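Weekend entry, working from home. Most of the wet-lab plans are on hold until the incubator is repaired, so I used the time to fold the two sequences that have been sitting in the queue since the last round of cloning. Logging both here for the record. First:
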Amino acid sequence: MRATAQAPSKVIISGEHFVVHGGWALAAAIGKRVTVEVEPSDKLAVTSDAFGGSSALSPVSKVVEYMASRYSFSPDLRFSISSEVPGGAGLGSSASTMVAVAAAVSRVKSLELGRGELVECAMVGEQVVHGRPSGVDAAACAYGGVLLYRPGSRPRAVRLDGKRRMLVVFSGSRRSTKRLVSHVADVRARLPAYFSGLAESAADLATLAAERLKEGDMEGLGRLLTYNHAVLSAVGVSTPRLDQLVDLLLSLGCYGAKLTGAGGGGSVLAVTAEGREKRIISEVTKRGFEAFVSVIPVAGVKSWQRP
């Protein structure tokens, strides 16, 4: 029997980095997806365009070997992984991949794992990729929709009464999440009281952003995004290019914008009045950036059997 699984990617609307240290983060699944196909084999093998070929083997194999040991089956499976999610763009490409791998294994081995169990399995691979991930990326990719997340707590779904549109603009610079998480940990160690104050304000921003998003107050949400970018810049995870991109988006009429994900490169998330997105995308494209509109909410991971 063969199986296929597909998982969405994600954006962090508010709270990245501080979530690693116990704060709340607001995240949403978006429509760019990773697809994993799996079938029995005589050995564990991976072909992938998601991590640039064979480099996918280590984190994927860790997930599969963990699941094989925990649920008592042979890890001899062949995986084919394809991705719409650019790596290093702050959109959760690794989490999407690990969640899809776990879901495909669950399906092909008839494990019937719940989403929380899929997140637990995916985190084995995420730790290989990122060192000390919070788990918010994997949770967003598994559960889908929009959620408030804090390590050690069950994700809280944020129910929307309709669709919300957000702009995602790739800065063109890729980054290392592991390095940036380490950098923020160093800031916390050097300036513990200052960091604690920032973490508390970031947690409040995440819950306020959830309220604005739920109410459809995109202008109010935008103001929170821009302020959140300033907080992230204060702990050293923004860059001049990201700051300039945020400034550009604001000058083009966006309500607000911020880096999304680890920072140090990657992507910027922005909100604007509905109907302005096409013009703004045209303007940023002229300046060499890639951009797209993400419509949320988006469903989480799904899997199915193949003959």
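Second, folded right after the first finished:
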Amino acid sequence: MSDRKTQGIEATNQAFRQYDQVDKRQEYHLAEARHAEAFDVETRIPSCDIGRFLRGDERDRQAFAGELGDALRRLGFAILEGHGVDTTLYDEADQRILELVTTVPLEEKLRYRAQRFGSVNQGYFPIRETSDIHPDLVEGWVFCRRAFDLDDDPSYRESDFWPRPGDEPLFRRVAEAHGGLILPVMQSLLRSLGCDPHLYDRKLTGTNFGLRLNYYPPMSSADEASGGGRMLGHEDVDLFTLLPASRVEGLQILNRANGKWIRLAAPRGSIILNTGDYVQRISNDIFPSTTHRVSPPRLAAERQQTRVSFPMAIYLWEDEVLEVLPGLEPRKYEPIKAIHFHTRITSKYYGDDYAVG
């Protein structure tokens, strides 16, 4: 393990604050590990019925926007119900992730090792290699838009991105199902801020995204003693993230109001939504990019189970400009190209030479 990762087990986020491109005053250790941290057992993440936006009238849409905006202002997280995605698709995705990770030899996986394309590090991440600052106990893949046959590109070849034939069509179905929620969510956020709800329609039509397939193996006693945790505390570098609820406990979010961690329990079939750094920037800090992590389950038996998840991060293309939305004064941030914004933040994880501009 590198010295930087060893130090990361005990480090707090403030050791890396020079990389932040939005205001983040909260302080937390990167993993739960051996730190005596406080938990918030009273606060519940609000549930919002996005079906009212998808199938309701104008009054329903406005009401949903108000509820979603209130939830995200307060906690940066909400649970979406009524989204209409067939939850059997999530069961299929769970099983396919297990098969992908456990049947493909490591040598073959390493042929797809992650590298930067545009703003985003895409491809395969071996266990403990999610970042340079912490030994996360997760194995993962990041598939961005270019990895899917979505745009009738004659040069597209599935084998350039996917080691197993047939995986791309299934995960394309997941991406397309969640893609149908991108504009409803963004339009609702804009409505709640009093902005033109269609301001981002063009930018988010055919936009880039990252579908990350996470596999958390059973934890050994050595893993538990290492202090590594399953995924370090972080804020997402995107507009927002859509995450189908996992079967196994682990996701925790930091309540900025009291500095305590909330163990998030969402119904199977629901989608967890959280806002990221892009939205904090354009909303002038109204919508926080909220800290979260994946910690070992409290029950020893659950720590011996595999855990899978497949969050979908919604980005902007690299040449788009992030600027504070109209009417939000005084503006705290200057306009910045997405590629500069994104890579300056993520150079924290991949090294200073990762930053563009």
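Plan for Monday: verify the second prediction. The mean pLDDT is 95.
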